[in-house]
Fold this sequence. Notes:
The chain is an alpha+beta fold.
Amino acid sequence: MAILDILHFPDPRLRRRAAPLGAVDDALRRMLDDMLETMYAAKGVGLAATQVNIHLRMLVADVSDDRDQPLFLVNPEIIARDGLQESEEGCLSVPGFYEPVTRAEQIRVRALGRDGQPLELETDGLLAVCIQHEIDHLDGKLFVDYLSEIKRQRIRKKLIKSQRAAEPAGVAG
Ligand code: GNR
Ligand code: NI
């Protein structure tokens, strides 16, 4: 297992559209396990492959209090949505910023599991928000895209500034 580096907005690699997977094999399961470890280490409730510079359609999530109910979704698709909910969102790729976003209240998702078997799940609340947020990542979309241009630019400038400060001296970024 390994902890992977998470890309930060406005890194252009976060804008790539992830490619669908053919099948789930051991190499892919290793990537999913690394993503889960990375998500837990970063204290996130979800992580999309795009965020760790893997441009394949897969995500991990765990919204349980005890962090012991991991969910692995490969080629996830939302096949039904109902209602609307607004909630405060954050993103491991946009560290330190939280803003309200409106999304579907309830969703039905079709995907392959970690074992490669097809699955469907219906969910609402935080897990529904999280899955919609992660599928957006796979499409190159970030929660800041739902905000005003003014707010997005303010976040962008602050993150660029803090990324400069975090870079080791003499290393070109
Ligand atoms: O950890 C996360 N918390 C969160 C809170 C509200 C709405 C969405 C999320 S997802 C985020 C982790 C992340 O960036 N996943 O892509
Ligand atoms: Ni995110």
